[in-house]
Amino acid sequence: MEEKLQAKNVRIVLFFSHLLECTSVKLANSLIDELPELGQPNIFNIPAEAPNEVKMQMPKIIFNNAKQINITVTNVSIDISIDNDNIEIIKNNINKIYKALSDNNVHIQAIGVVSRYLYFDINFEKIKEIYYKDEELMESDLINLSWYKKKDTINIWKTLKTEDKDNVKNLTLSIDINNKGINRIIDIGYINEFLDNQNIEVNSFKENLEKKIGD
To answer: Which whole-number Å values give the CA distances from 124 to 8, 96, 120, in the listed order?
Structure first.
């Protein structure tokens, strides 16, 4: 059963407290100093005449040469994609990225983590039987294609998506945990505690899922 469940990737987004003011070259060099394995970045110039919404979301820096980590920087956030769900590896990378940001006077006001897993060859009838009647769904604050629960200042979205491939149904599970909306600067201690807590939440969800649908 265990080999059926495989990590796809973990995506961490750190949201800036203000628009990025340092130069892209300076920030890129700071990131390389902390994480040399990133390799050389792609740096983009955003046209001055571009609409504000484009300026907010258009990438300024992209690192996509490393095997297990990719980084995209915009004016409002830094998006880190890691092909590993080991919490110590994740925290080690985030701590280095946080230092590079701090060296450039970039502060963080929110964090979001999306963990994605693929469960191979599921019992589709069992999924339907369980998750249309599951107690957690009944207790959630909002249900759409996924379900949502708020714990204090933390938002938790859980999503299950089935895929039919070569007549075999697989299941992608996604857990999005964030604190968007707190509107205050957070330090590395808070970020590490957040990462530890979201890891506990993710592992609990995975274990419960395997107990429910495992053979």
So the answer is: 20, 42, 11
Q: Are 101 and 78 in contact (CB under 8 A)?
A: yes
Query: Which pLDDT score is estimated for 69?
Result: 96
By C-alpha distance, which of 45, 70, 47 is closest to 60? 45
Beta carbons of 116 and 39 less than 8 angstroms apart: no
Strands 61-63 and 69-73: antiparallel
Helix, strand, coil abundance in the chain, percent, nearest 5:
35, 35, 30
Cβ contact 196:111 at 8 Å: no
What is the mean pLDDT, run by run of 10 residues, along the chain of 215 residues? 72 95 95 96 87 86 94 97 95 98 97 93 77 71 75 92 82 92 90 97 90 74
H or E segment to which residue 77 belongs: strand 77-82
By DSSP bridging, strand 142-143 and strand 5-16 are unpaired
Does residue 134 contact residue 208 with C-beta atoms inside 8 Å?
A: no
pLDDT of 1 reads 40
pLDDT of residue 148: 92
